[in-house]
Amino acid sequence: MAILTLVGKELAKEGMEFQYIGPLIECRGCKLKKICFALDEGKWYRVVKVRDKEHECKVHNSGKVVTVEVEEIPVEIAIDAKTVVEGETIEFHRINPKDCECEQDLCSPLGLRDGTKVKIVEVVGTIKCGNRDLKKVRVTW
Hints:
The chain has 2 domains: 3-73, no CATH class; 75-140, no CATH class. Helix content is 3%, strand content 44%. By secondary structure, the chain is an all-beta fold. A hairpin with a 7-residue loop joins strand 3 and strand 4 (64-73). The radius of gyration is 18 Å and the shape is elongated.
């Protein structure tokens, strides 16, 4: 099923990926806010189809937004686990930056909170971080 939202006209291109960071205060009075805010905060999306319908918007530089169809895309993270299985659902826990020697953004991804249940879509590989091995995985939540 397609997920509909609005994006700035200048950004609306098939294949464009973005992270939904949440509602903006400037949008409180907008009659179209429900469609803009229909996404899940922190998740990443890819535009799969751009529709022809344009709307006025006070937030975007072009002054216009267009309706697009998007799909949720998996996010790459690092987890401290000896074994992980594709399809498994686990509870995400950030790796303390003080304990991370590899300087990977994967250990503390933007928008993903401790305790969030994530589904492992794909096991990508192993990351060496100091004296431990982390698993690099793609997840949805």
